[in-house]
Design goal:
Elements: H1 3-31, H2 42-58, H3 63-74, H4 76-89, H5 95-112, H6 122-141, H7 151-154, H8 156-173, H9 179-209, H10 218-240, H11 246-257, H12 259-265
Helix pairs in contact: 1-3, 1-4, 1-12, 2-5, 2-6, 2-8, 3-5, 4-5, 5-6, 8-9, 8-11, 9-10, 10-11, 10-12
């Protein structure tokens, strides 16, 4: 493979997750009841990036694996810059989202410039995780003024699933060989699916108790069917003890990212 073809392939694999996430995220933004810029998937990206930082300090990766993982994370710069522009220069302007996007840019640069020498990575990891923690706290603080009924559209447990699957996809794209860790990601994703289902069912029970009727209840049926589909795929992989096929993992990523879409359809 020529150097140009290799660079093009790397660029494609680094950028397409952000392009997919942005397309879904902005669709959700335009159907949400609130006319403010709040990312429905940004917390998942933060989780994936913070776990990537942690891996640089804890996982046994050769320089080649580190470099490929670093390159895959560069693609998230597109996600954060687009959100920074959208929140800062449109009628949806929302200051907390500006701050979160800036934190996302900073984490991306921490991952970009993390040294190859393991003895020098700690300051970058500490700074990156500290910035990420501030972004996560800000993200949760945004929901103080939002009704509990809208929680399913921004549910942190759904975004935790997205972050785990996104990290798994990033590691596969980077041709990483952390097979045991990736199996742990699948197991943790199944547990997060269960927690997400419990949280959303609790919100629906609360809505029923308050006499709230959703205009499109069939969207909830699809929402929970997705949970069963993802759990079946990941459970099968874990029980068989095999590495999940890349295109199946990509399908899981797309389906998980669509969860806020179906939650949003329930309100319209």
């Amino acid at each position: 493979m020529s150097e140009h073809s290799s660079s093009t392939r790397t660029l494609f694999y680094a950028l397409y997750p952000s392009v997919i996430l942005l397309a879904i995220d902005f669709f959700c933004t335009f159907i949400q009841p609130q006319a403010i810029a709040i990312s429905h998937l940004g917390l998942g990206v933060l989780i994936a990036q913070m776990l990537s930082l942690w891996l640089f300090g804890k996982a046994q990766m050769c320089p080649g694996q580190q470099g490929r993982l670093r390159n895959m994370n560069k693609g998230f710069l597109l996600f954060w810059l687009v959100w920074l522009f959208f929140s800062g220069f449109t009628n949806y302007h929302y200051v907390p989202t500006d701050f979160i996007a800036l934190c996302g840019v900073a984490i991306t640069f921490c991952l970009w410039f993390v040294p190859k020498n393991r003895n020098d990575v700690k300051p970058y990891i500490f700074i990156g995780l500290l910035i990420g923690a501030m972004a996560v706290i800000t993200y949760f603080a945004m929901f103080v003024d939002l009704s509990l009924l809208f929680l399913p559209m921004f549910n942190p447990f759904a975004q935790l699933i997205l972050g785990l699957v996104l990290l798994h996809l990033t590691l596969r794209s980077a041709r990483n060989r952390l097979d045991n860790f990736m199996a742990t990601l699948s197991l943790t994703s199944i547990l997060a699916l269960l927690l997400n289902a419990i949280v959303v069912l609790s919100v629906l029970w609360y809505a029923y108790a308050q006499g709230v009727n959703f205009p499109n209840p069939m969207a909830w049926a699809v929402y929970f069917a997705i949970h069963l589909l993802i759990a079946a795929v990941l459970g099968f992989v874990l029980l068989k003890g095999v590495k999940i096929d890349y295109f199946i993992l990509l399908l899981v990523f797309l389906v998980v990212a669509s969860l806020p879409v179906w939650a949003g359809f329930a309100y319209i």
